[in-house]
Amino acid sequence: GEKLKVTVDQLIEQLEQLISSADNGRIIREGIKTVIVGKPNAGKSSLLNVLVGEERAIVTDIEGTTRDTIEDSFMLEDIKINLIDTAGIRNTEDKVEKIGVDKAKSLISKADIVLFLIDSSRAYSKEDEEIYNSIQGTKYIVLKTKSDLKSVINKTFENEIEISTTSGDGFEKLKER
């Protein structure tokens, strides 16, 4: 019985190594699937544009500009980062926007990393809290955006970085992380 247990334990260990290296293999082949989520106007599209180095996403002051996902990638050293900019998550009556919001929610579970953006110049809201709760159980980084403006958020998060797409603050820290 003891011999069998040792063999089974060894098999389990080998399988776990295989699974973790398979994940690494997939990441090397396909890149890291990084999903950008947050409320409308949190700075998701601006972040995508800065990271990929071009104006890929339309940026306006109008909430709900991004209604579908925008995907692009960039190389971070020798790892491909696949960015997916999603529609701002909020309750909406707009049919098209609602599809985008649902898509954003479903992408969270498929992500390798979730970047959760919170506009630090606006009060932390119930919508922010709902999004934060929905990313629990994933690997995530909380990005407090618009760090060049006066912050009104008094909540701190375990894995947070203050960032500004205007001044470039926090980008080195984000890339390291």
List the helices and strands and how they pair.
Blueprint: H1 2-30, E1 32-38, H2 44-52, E2 70-76, E3 79-85, H3 95-108, E4 113-119, H4 126-134, E5 140-145, E6 160-162, H5 171-176
Task: Tell me about this structure.
By secondary structure, the protein is α/β, with parallel strands linked by helices. The protein contains five helices and six strands, in the order H-E-H-E-E-H-E-H-E-E-H. The protein has helices spanning 2-30, 44-52, 95-108, 126-134, 171-176; strands spanning 32-38, 70-76, 79-85, 113-119, 140-145, 160-162. The longest helix is centred in the first third of the chain and has 29 residues, at 2-30.
Mean pLDDT equals 88
* Major sheet summary line: 6 strands, mixed
Note the overall shape.
elongated
Give the count of helical stretches.
5
DSSP strand tally: 6
Strand order within the widest sheet? 2-3-1-4-5-6
What is the string of helix and strand elements?
A: HEHEEHEHEEH
Rg (CA only) = 19 Å
Class from secondary-structure proportions: alpha/beta
Question: Helical content, roughly?
Answer: 25-40%
Distance separating the two termini: 46 Å
Strand content: 15-25%
Low-confidence stretches: none
Short description:
The protein is α/β, with parallel strands linked by helices and 177 residues long. 38% of the residues lie in helices and 21% in strands. It has helices at residues 2-30, 44-52, 95-108, 126-134, 171-176, and strands at residues 32-38, 70-76, 79-85, 113-119, 140-145, 160-162.
